[in-house]
Design brief:
Blueprint lengths: L2 E5 L2 E2 L2 E2 L8 H16 L5 E2 L9 E6 L4 H8 L15 E8 L2 E8 L2 H15 L5 H4 L9 E3 L5 E2 L18 H10 L2
Parallel strand pairs: 3-4, 3-5, 5-7
Antiparallel strand pairs: 1-2, 1-8, 6-7, 6-9
Helix pairs in contact: 1-3
Length: 181
């Protein structure tokens, strides 16, 4: 099965339910802007699957999504390897109600965010976009095949991050260049 995130100048809308976990609206907008950065088309954001929608991306978190619960009950997806874990996501390209649907399901808030950013990376968006001005190549279409399906592993460490050397001239000159004195 293929999933057309962008085809013929039309982007699949991003579905974010009203019952989504706090903060997902903001993070979904970042994901939408990643799609726009690559394709010059900003996907619509909708609160529900609609009859007239040809294909869609569902962004959801276990325990905060009626769609995930319903699809699991119907046997469309299994969240067994995601639910109850820390920072795990699953990406499922499925046919639901006779329409292509790309499901990004997270075990928790971070898992859902990592799932969206995984799709962004597959489109060519670097996590260093802001820090290294790593602008992605433009694409006329973004189509994924079934190899996009994945269930991530739980991280081996609890806290992640990176160190920014804040000594002069490293960060100081960069900050002045970007934000002024």
């Amino acid at each position: 099965m293929q999933f057309e995130l962008l085809k013929n100048g039309k982007a699949a809308p991003i579905i974010l339910e009203e019952c989504a976990i706090d903060g997902m609206d903001f993070m979904t907008d970042i994901f939408r802007k990643d799609v726009e950065l690559v394709t010059d088309v900003l996907p619509d954001k909708k609160p529900a699957l609609q009859e007239d929608t040809e294909a869609a991306v569902l962004v959801a978190t276990c325990g905060y999504s009626k769609y995930l619960e319903k699809m699991e009950e119907e046997g469309v997806i299994s969240l067994e390897d995601i639910r109850g874990k820390r920072e795990v996501y699953g990406i499922f390209p499925v046919c639901y109600q006779e329409k292509p649907l790309l499901i990004i399901a997270g075990s928790d808030k971070r898992g859902t965010i990592y799932g969206m950013f995984s799709i962004s990376e597959k489109m060519g968006v670097s996590p260093w976009l802001f820090w290294a001005d790593a602008v992605p190549a433009k694409k006329a279409e973004v189509v994924f095949d079934e190899s996009i399906a994945v269930i991530s592993k739980e991280p081996s460490v609890k806290y992640r991050g990176f160190f920014i050397n804040d000594e002069q001239p490293c960060l100081g000159n960069w900050a002045k260049e970007k934000y002024g004195s």
